[in-house]
Write a structure and sequence with these properties.
The protein is of the alpha/beta class. The protein has one domain (2-167): Rossmann fold. It contains ten helices and five strands; from the N terminus they run βαβαβααβααβαααα. It has helices at residues 15-26, 53-61, 73-77, 83-93, 105-110, 117-123, 139-143, 148-156, 169-178, 190-198; strands at residues 2-8, 32-37, 68-70, 98-104, 125-129. It has a five-stranded parallel beta sheet, sandwiched between helices. It is globular, with a radius of gyration of 17 Å. The relative contact order is 0.17. The structure holds adenosine-5'-triphosphate (ATP). The site of adenosine-5'-triphosphate has 19 residues, from α1, β4, α5 and α9.
Length: 205
Protein backbone atom coordinates (compact mmCIF):
# COMPACT_ATOMS: atom_id res chain seq x y z
CA UNK A 1 0.00 0.00 0.00
CA UNK A 2 1.23 3.49 -0.80
CA UNK A 3 1.22 5.59 2.36
CA UNK A 4 1.86 9.31 2.76
CA UNK A 5 3.50 10.04 6.08
CA UNK A 6 2.87 13.50 7.46
CA UNK A 7 5.60 14.12 9.97
CA UNK A 8 5.22 17.32 11.94
CA UNK A 9 4.72 18.96 15.26
CA UNK A 10 1.02 19.63 14.69
CA UNK A 11 1.05 22.35 17.32
CA UNK A 12 -1.82 22.63 16.46
CA UNK A 13 -3.01 20.65 13.42
CA UNK A 14 -4.72 23.00 10.94
CA UNK A 15 -6.74 23.09 7.72
CA UNK A 16 -3.53 23.04 5.69
CA UNK A 17 -2.48 19.66 7.11
CA UNK A 18 -5.98 18.32 6.60
CA UNK A 19 -6.29 19.73 3.08
CA UNK A 20 -2.97 18.21 2.05
CA UNK A 21 -4.01 14.78 3.29
CA UNK A 22 -7.39 15.06 1.56
CA UNK A 23 -5.74 16.06 -1.71
CA UNK A 24 -3.30 13.14 -1.68
CA UNK A 25 -6.09 10.68 -0.92
CA UNK A 26 -8.69 12.08 -3.32
CA UNK A 27 -6.26 12.34 -6.20
CA UNK A 28 -5.19 8.75 -5.43
CA UNK A 29 -1.53 9.66 -5.15
CA UNK A 30 -1.63 7.52 -2.00
CA UNK A 31 -4.07 5.08 -0.44
CA UNK A 32 -3.47 6.10 3.14
CA UNK A 33 -2.42 9.28 4.95
CA UNK A 34 -0.63 8.72 8.22
CA UNK A 35 -0.08 11.61 10.62
CA UNK A 36 3.03 11.00 12.64
CA UNK A 37 3.43 13.59 15.39
CA UNK A 38 7.03 14.22 16.39
CA UNK A 39 7.72 13.31 19.99
CA UNK A 40 10.75 15.58 20.40
CA UNK A 41 11.19 17.43 17.09
CA UNK A 42 14.92 18.06 16.50
CA UNK A 43 14.38 21.46 14.86
CA UNK A 44 12.06 22.68 17.58
CA UNK A 45 13.37 20.94 20.72
CA UNK A 46 14.74 23.41 23.21
CA UNK A 47 13.85 26.45 21.10
CA UNK A 48 10.32 27.08 22.15
CA UNK A 49 7.69 25.51 24.32
CA UNK A 50 5.52 23.06 22.45
CA UNK A 51 2.32 21.49 23.69
CA UNK A 52 2.55 17.99 25.14
CA UNK A 53 2.48 15.01 22.81
CA UNK A 54 -0.91 14.05 24.27
CA UNK A 55 -2.52 17.41 23.46
CA UNK A 56 -1.07 17.48 19.94
CA UNK A 57 -2.18 13.90 19.34
CA UNK A 58 -5.66 14.48 20.78
CA UNK A 59 -6.16 17.39 18.39
CA UNK A 60 -5.10 15.20 15.46
CA UNK A 61 -7.52 12.49 16.51
CA UNK A 62 -10.39 14.99 16.07
CA UNK A 63 -9.80 15.53 12.35
CA UNK A 64 -9.37 12.00 11.02
CA UNK A 65 -11.39 11.04 7.95
CA UNK A 66 -11.52 7.86 5.82
CA UNK A 67 -8.04 6.77 4.85
CA UNK A 68 -6.36 8.83 7.59
CA UNK A 69 -4.66 7.49 10.69
CA UNK A 70 -2.20 8.50 13.41
CA UNK A 71 1.02 6.69 14.19
CA UNK A 72 2.51 6.86 17.69
CA UNK A 73 5.78 5.44 16.47
CA UNK A 74 7.94 8.42 17.42
CA UNK A 75 6.54 8.44 20.93
CA UNK A 76 6.98 4.67 21.26
CA UNK A 77 10.59 4.97 20.14
CA UNK A 78 11.15 7.91 22.51
CA UNK A 79 13.94 10.51 22.39
CA UNK A 80 14.49 12.98 19.56
CA UNK A 81 12.46 12.07 16.47
CA UNK A 82 14.85 11.81 13.53
CA UNK A 83 13.04 11.20 10.25
CA UNK A 84 15.93 9.00 9.10
CA UNK A 85 15.42 6.61 12.01
CA UNK A 86 11.64 6.64 11.67
CA UNK A 87 11.70 5.86 7.94
CA UNK A 88 14.40 3.21 8.36
CA UNK A 89 12.25 1.53 10.99
CA UNK A 90 9.03 1.78 8.97
CA UNK A 91 10.53 0.41 5.76
CA UNK A 92 12.14 -2.47 7.65
CA UNK A 93 9.01 -3.33 9.63
CA UNK A 94 6.61 -3.04 6.72
CA UNK A 95 8.44 -3.98 3.51
CA UNK A 96 5.10 -4.58 1.76
CA UNK A 97 4.17 -0.88 2.07
CA UNK A 98 5.61 2.07 0.16
CA UNK A 99 6.13 5.17 2.29
CA UNK A 100 6.51 8.72 1.09
CA UNK A 101 7.25 11.49 3.55
CA UNK A 102 5.31 14.69 2.87
CA UNK A 103 7.01 18.03 3.51
CA UNK A 104 6.00 21.60 2.79
CA UNK A 105 8.17 23.71 0.50
CA UNK A 106 9.59 25.52 3.57
CA UNK A 107 10.85 22.17 4.87
CA UNK A 108 12.37 21.34 1.47
CA UNK A 109 14.54 24.45 1.87
CA UNK A 110 15.76 23.12 5.23
CA UNK A 111 16.04 19.45 4.31
CA UNK A 112 19.84 19.59 3.90
CA UNK A 113 20.10 20.36 7.64
CA UNK A 114 18.20 17.20 8.62
CA UNK A 115 20.00 14.27 10.27
CA UNK A 116 21.82 12.13 7.65
CA UNK A 117 20.29 14.29 4.92
CA UNK A 118 22.14 12.84 1.91
CA UNK A 119 21.33 9.24 2.78
CA UNK A 120 17.81 10.25 3.70
CA UNK A 121 17.08 11.58 0.22
CA UNK A 122 18.93 8.77 -1.49
CA UNK A 123 16.99 6.04 0.28
CA UNK A 124 13.53 7.51 0.74
CA UNK A 125 10.83 9.43 -1.13
CA UNK A 126 9.97 13.00 -0.15
CA UNK A 127 6.87 14.53 -1.66
CA UNK A 128 7.03 18.31 -1.50
CA UNK A 129 3.74 20.11 -1.05
CA UNK A 130 3.89 23.76 -2.26
CA UNK A 131 3.08 26.06 0.62
CA UNK A 132 0.68 28.97 0.16
CA UNK A 133 2.53 32.29 0.42
CA UNK A 134 5.94 30.69 -0.21
CA UNK A 135 7.92 30.27 -3.40
CA UNK A 136 9.20 26.84 -4.35
CA UNK A 137 12.95 26.38 -4.10
CA UNK A 138 14.51 26.22 -7.58
CA UNK A 139 16.93 23.53 -8.76
CA UNK A 140 19.71 26.15 -8.63
CA UNK A 141 18.89 26.96 -5.01
CA UNK A 142 18.77 23.29 -4.04
CA UNK A 143 22.05 22.73 -5.90
CA UNK A 144 23.79 24.93 -3.30
CA UNK A 145 23.27 22.14 -0.78
CA UNK A 146 22.67 18.94 -2.74
CA UNK A 147 24.42 16.80 -5.36
CA UNK A 148 22.80 16.78 -8.79
CA UNK A 149 21.09 13.38 -8.41
CA UNK A 150 19.44 14.55 -5.19
CA UNK A 151 18.30 17.79 -6.86
CA UNK A 152 16.75 15.78 -9.71
CA UNK A 153 15.01 13.46 -7.27
CA UNK A 154 13.70 16.23 -5.01
CA UNK A 155 12.48 18.52 -7.79
CA UNK A 156 10.81 15.53 -9.48
CA UNK A 157 8.71 14.92 -6.39
CA UNK A 158 7.17 18.37 -6.06
CA UNK A 159 3.35 18.36 -6.23
CA UNK A 160 3.15 21.32 -8.61
CA UNK A 161 -0.59 21.17 -9.28
CA UNK A 162 -1.79 20.65 -5.70
CA UNK A 163 -4.18 23.23 -4.20
CA UNK A 164 -2.41 25.69 -1.89
CA UNK A 165 -3.17 26.23 1.78
CA UNK A 166 -2.08 29.40 3.58
CA UNK A 167 -2.43 28.12 7.16
CA UNK A 168 0.47 27.75 9.57
CA UNK A 169 0.57 26.67 13.21
CA UNK A 170 2.77 29.67 14.02
CA UNK A 171 0.11 32.08 12.77
CA UNK A 172 -2.62 30.25 14.71
CA UNK A 173 -0.59 30.33 17.94
CA UNK A 174 0.10 34.03 17.40
CA UNK A 175 -3.58 34.78 16.94
CA UNK A 176 -4.51 32.81 20.06
CA UNK A 177 -1.84 34.52 22.14
CA UNK A 178 -2.82 38.01 21.07
CA UNK A 179 -6.56 37.35 21.21
CA UNK A 180 -6.91 38.03 17.47
CA UNK A 181 -9.43 35.24 17.07
CA UNK A 182 -12.12 36.77 14.83
CA UNK A 183 -11.01 34.81 11.75
CA UNK A 184 -9.31 31.89 13.42
CA UNK A 185 -12.23 29.57 12.64
CA UNK A 186 -11.13 29.63 8.99
CA UNK A 187 -7.73 28.24 9.82
CA UNK A 188 -8.46 25.06 11.73
CA UNK A 189 -11.30 22.57 12.19
CA UNK A 190 -13.97 23.62 14.72
CA UNK A 191 -13.36 20.53 16.87
CA UNK A 192 -9.69 21.48 17.22
CA UNK A 193 -10.55 25.07 18.12
CA UNK A 194 -13.01 23.82 20.77
CA UNK A 195 -10.33 21.52 22.19
CA UNK A 196 -7.88 24.43 22.36
CA UNK A 197 -10.44 26.59 24.17
CA UNK A 198 -11.49 23.82 26.57
CA UNK A 199 -7.91 23.10 27.52
CA UNK A 200 -6.82 26.75 27.44
CA UNK A 201 -3.90 26.01 25.15
CA UNK A 202 -1.59 28.64 23.66
CA UNK A 203 -2.93 31.54 25.68
CA UNK A 204 -0.67 33.31 28.16
CA UNK A 205 2.60 31.87 26.80
P1 LIG B 1 4.92 25.81 12.57
O1 LIG B 1 4.30 27.07 12.06
O2 LIG B 1 4.83 25.61 14.06
O3 LIG B 1 6.33 25.59 12.04
P2 LIG B 1 3.55 24.23 10.55
O4 LIG B 1 2.29 24.96 10.24
O5 LIG B 1 4.69 24.35 9.58
O6 LIG B 1 4.03 24.61 12.02
P3 LIG B 1 4.14 21.48 11.11
O7 LIG B 1 3.39 20.56 11.98
O8 LIG B 1 5.46 21.91 11.56
O9 LIG B 1 3.17 22.74 10.82
O10 LIG B 1 4.19 20.94 9.63
C1 LIG B 1 4.49 19.62 9.25
C2 LIG B 1 4.83 19.64 7.77
O11 LIG B 1 3.71 20.16 7.02
C3 LIG B 1 6.02 20.54 7.43
O12 LIG B 1 6.81 19.89 6.45
C4 LIG B 1 5.37 21.78 6.86
O13 LIG B 1 6.21 22.39 5.89
C5 LIG B 1 4.13 21.23 6.20
N1 LIG B 1 3.05 22.20 6.17
C6 LIG B 1 2.40 22.74 7.21
N2 LIG B 1 1.45 23.60 6.81
C7 LIG B 1 1.50 23.61 5.45
C8 LIG B 1 0.77 24.30 4.44
N3 LIG B 1 -0.18 25.20 4.74
N4 LIG B 1 1.09 24.05 3.14
C9 LIG B 1 2.07 23.15 2.84
N5 LIG B 1 2.80 22.48 3.74
C10 LIG B 1 2.52 22.70 5.04
Amino acid sequence: MKIAVFGGTFDPVHNGHLGMARYLLRSRIVEKACFLPAYLPPHKAGKKKIQSYEHRRNMLSLILEDGMEISDLEKQRGGISYTFDTLSFLTQERPEDEFCWVIGSDSLRQLHTWYRAEELVERFTFLTYPRGGETLPTAVELGEHWQENAVVKLTGQILHTAPLFPESSTEIRRKLQTGDIATIGNLLPAAVLNYIKQNQLYTGE
